[in-house]
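>> received
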Amino acid sequence: MILITGGAYQGKTAFAAGLLGISPEDIADGRVCTPEEALSAGCINSFHALVRRLPEPVLFTEELCRRNAGAVVIMDEIGCGIVPMEKSERVWRENTGRCGCIIASRSDTVVRLVCGIPSVIKGELP
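>> returned
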């Protein structure tokens, strides 16, 4: 598994496509895909958005790691900045952080992108 993370609009998807040769049809969009599609996708973009739509995101993430261990997961860092006033937004951020920790712990490679520049924080680039 490979985790690519960083702020919004930092070039994460383009980096994954360029480095790993992932084609657009191999990418499941976490904003609209079904959980079943994510479990079999070669790449899941906007995983943080999928977390928002799941009733049990931590359990789903553990299942994803078991069933789709070769996936590339792309997610925005959303835990920085001002803490939201709305409880549902805080819960989403906390769940996204927990899910990101699960994926990172089970990934061979973790990359953080800032301004399109990758920093490998775990493992090595393929």
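>> The first strand starts at residue 2 and ends at 6.
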